[in-house]
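Journal club side-thread
Mid-discussion, someone asked how the predicted structure for our own chain would compare to the paper's figures. Pasting it here so we can look after the session.
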Amino acid sequence: MEPQAWIYQQDKPTAGRKLLLLEEAELIFALPLIYRLINPEAVASKPDWFCDAELQTVSYTELVTQLNELVRLRKKTQRLDNELKNVNKMLNQYFTDLGWRMVRKELSQIKKRQKKSHIEVSRDIIQRLKRYMETQKLDSFDQAIDNLLSEHDADISQSHLQHPDDLDDNMSVDDMLDE
């Protein structure tokens, strides 16, 4: 399903990316955020994020009911196209342009945090990695580690190719790389 575009309530911006509504792949990150933001207390604390009560054609209870249905169907791994379109339409009527822009910004931060992991390494290893980065002219620890792992994978592949007698006759190239 193609992403639904946000329907602007104010003037459509002339520059920048157009706002998009929720996509199915984002639901795992977006639903907890949406539930937290549509709470009446949150609405009261950020009134410029939400349409005025008299302009809102969608009530809080309608939106929560539709979100709950979306969650239920998602858990059953059923198609969500119609329900997602309905929820997106309701969200478009519930949030202001500014509010939805802030939701998208927050959602982007959540996704970014999900991609990153934090590991602890000793100072000695950090110093060794920094020296390696200098000699290889690399800019980040990610690049250095990726480079080292690639070299390691290449060494393993090379050693398997040099010693074919050690291989099981039924072993595939993928099996060799997985070892």
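Post-session note: The longest helix spans residues 141-162.
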